[in-house]
TrEMBL record:
<dbReference type="InterPro" id="IPR022418">
    <property type="entry name" value="Porphobilinogen_deaminase_C"/>
</dbReference>
<protein>
    <recommendedName>
        <fullName>Porphobilinogen deaminase</fullName>
        <ecNumber>2.5.1.61</ecNumber>
    </recommendedName>
</protein>
<dbReference type="InterPro" id="IPR036803">
    <property type="entry name" value="Porphobilinogen_deaminase_C_sf"/>
</dbReference>
<dbReference type="Pfam" id="PF01379">
    <property type="entry name" value="Porphobil_deam"/>
</dbReference>
<dbReference type="GO" id="GO:0006782">
    <property type="term" value="P:protoporphyrinogen IX biosynthetic process"/>
</dbReference>
<feature type="domain" description="Porphobilinogen deaminase N-terminal">
    <location>
        <begin position="7"/>
        <end position="216"/>
    </location>
</feature>
<comment type="function">
    <text>Tetrapolymerization of the monopyrrole PBG into the hydroxymethylbilane pre-uroporphyrinogen in several discrete steps.</text>
</comment>
<feature type="domain" description="Porphobilinogen deaminase C-terminal">
    <location>
        <begin position="230"/>
        <end position="303"/>
    </location>
</feature>
<dbReference type="InterPro" id="IPR022419">
    <property type="entry name" value="Porphobilin_deaminase_cofac_BS"/>
</dbReference>
<comment type="subunit">
    <text>Monomer.</text>
</comment>
<comment type="pathway">
    <text>Porphyrin-containing compound metabolism; protoporphyrin-IX biosynthesis; coproporphyrinogen-III from 5-aminolevulinate: step 2/4.</text>
</comment>
<dbReference type="Pfam" id="PF03900">
    <property type="entry name" value="Porphobil_deamC"/>
</dbReference>
<keyword id="KW-0627">Porphyrin biosynthesis</keyword>
<dbReference type="GO" id="GO:0004418">
    <property type="term" value="F:hydroxymethylbilane synthase activity"/>
</dbReference>
<feature type="modified residue" description="S-(dipyrrolylmethanemethyl)cysteine">
    <location>
        <position position="245"/>
    </location>
</feature>
<keyword id="KW-0808">Transferase</keyword>
<dbReference type="InterPro" id="IPR022417">
    <property type="entry name" value="Porphobilin_deaminase_N"/>
</dbReference>
């Protein structure tokens, strides 16, 4: 007889999403002292997965990957939803809450290439493929002599295209490679001081209904407070910059003891201009409030400084 379901966990059905959802399932089951099987995984197809036309994805923004999960929470088809935090919009619907941020995986980008150990080693004119506007801009900022092109698809597809020689190099989140057991594909790791990753990279989000006390209670103690503090700083930075999908934005906060250090930047898509801030402050008693204030202030400073230069036309 199948065990009774305690909670149903919704997530996108992609390989990476299911891999990270299984990790959460195992860790949460261990924390609650139950068999993993009673936390049932329910794959949910999102508009972002269905729509093949990139322009529609850009028009709909990040919400295209979360709307169906929010609806499944509302309908009671699932009790909690797992997201990559970097794909979660900064503003959530009023009835949905970011209930828990589990332990964060390594936030760094991996440089992946069969031709070079690092970006600096690529020959002039080499082609770096990535669908990420941020990675394109950072590449051109560091190496204006390279070519950038879009490289789409899931992690497997992108690695296959690299192997087929479509591009000379790409960047992938190390966290995703690790969760898929593909860490060995990383030729090197990007130093966040040189090119910070996407805000919230490597972190996962567990969302639920605001009024679901049973789930919120079960998630208490599963949160990693340092990860929460870091992502709150990074999301506040994003929100202050009004991160449209068309603005390359990077942000990384790291908590160490009572201090938080933050590095964040935005660039023009052609990589010709970059606005960057870095700062460390003491966290004090209200760690989340301090982190949010820091991210919001630094994001606001960059917004004021860059002004129209970062409001891109389509
Ligand atoms: N943009 C897609 C995406 N969203 C989350 C991850 C995995 C890493 C993470 O959890 O931050 C990836 C793949 C990538 O950027 O290489």
């Amino acid at each position: 007889m199948a065990p009774a379901s305690l909670f149903r966990i919704g997530a996108r059905g992609s390989k990476l999403s299911l891999a990270q959802t299984r990790l959460v399932q195992a860790a949460l089951a261990a924390r609650l002292g139950v068999e993993p099987g009673v936390l049932e995984i329910v794959p949910i197809v999102t508009s972002g997965d269905r729509i093949q036309d990139r322009r529609l994805i850009e028009a709909g923004g990040k919400g295209l990957f979360t709307k169906e999960l929010d609806e499944a929470l509302r309908d009671g088809r699932i009790d909690l939803a797992i997201h990559s935090l970097k794909d979660l919009p900064t503003a959530l619907p009023d009835d949905i809450v970011l209930a828990c941020v589990p332990e964060r995986e390594d936030p760094r980008d991996a440089f992946v290439s069969l031709r070079a150990k690092a970006l600096a080693d690529l020959p002039a004119g080499a082609v770096v493929g990535t669908a990420s506007l941020r990675r394109q801009a950072q590449t051109l900022f560091a190496r204006p002599d390279l070519k950038v092109t879009t490289l789409r698809g899931n992690v497997d597809t992108r690695l296959a295209k690299l192997e087929a020689g479509d591009v000379d190099a790409t960047f992938l989140a190390l966290a995703g490679l690790k969760r898929l057991g593909l860490e060995s594909r990383a030729a090197s790791l990007v130093d966040p001081e040189e090119a910070p990753p996407a805000a919230c990279q490597g972190a996962l989000a567990i969302t639920t209904r605001v009024d679901d006390a049973r789930v919120r209670e079960a998630l208490e103690g599963f949160e990693d407070l340092n990860a929460r503090v870091e992502i709150e700083a990074e999301r506040a930075f994003l929100a202050a910059l009004d991160g449209s999908c068309r603005t390359p934005i990077s942000a990384l906060a790291r908590v160490s003891g009572d201090a938080i250090s933050f590095i964040g930047e935005t660039l023009t898509p052609d990589g010709k201009k970059r606005w960057q801030r870095r700062e460390s402050v003491a966290l004090g008693d209200d760690r989340v409030a301090t982190a949010r204030a820091l991210g919001a202030r630094l994001g606001g400073e960059i917004r004021d400084e860059a002004g129209d230069a970062i409001v891109m036309d389509a």
